[in-house]
Amino acid sequence: MGTGVDLTIRELAETVRDLVHPEAELVFDTSRPDGMPRKVLDVSRLTDLGWTATTSLAEGLADTYRWYLGGR
Asked: Residue 51 is part of which domain span?
């Protein structure tokens, strides 16, 4: 699922890094632009059905990461 909120690849990487390993350095190879620098999901059909996101990306990632760590 998505929220329809625009998010850069850098913002996503920073969110994951901050959760998993805050000391890690992110390195982006800008010499290889092989895709869009940002991604956004079209959730208009879900919105038309009355659905709205109740969990933020950061909350969802944190919950998923805790679940993953608990299963190891």
From this structure: 7-70
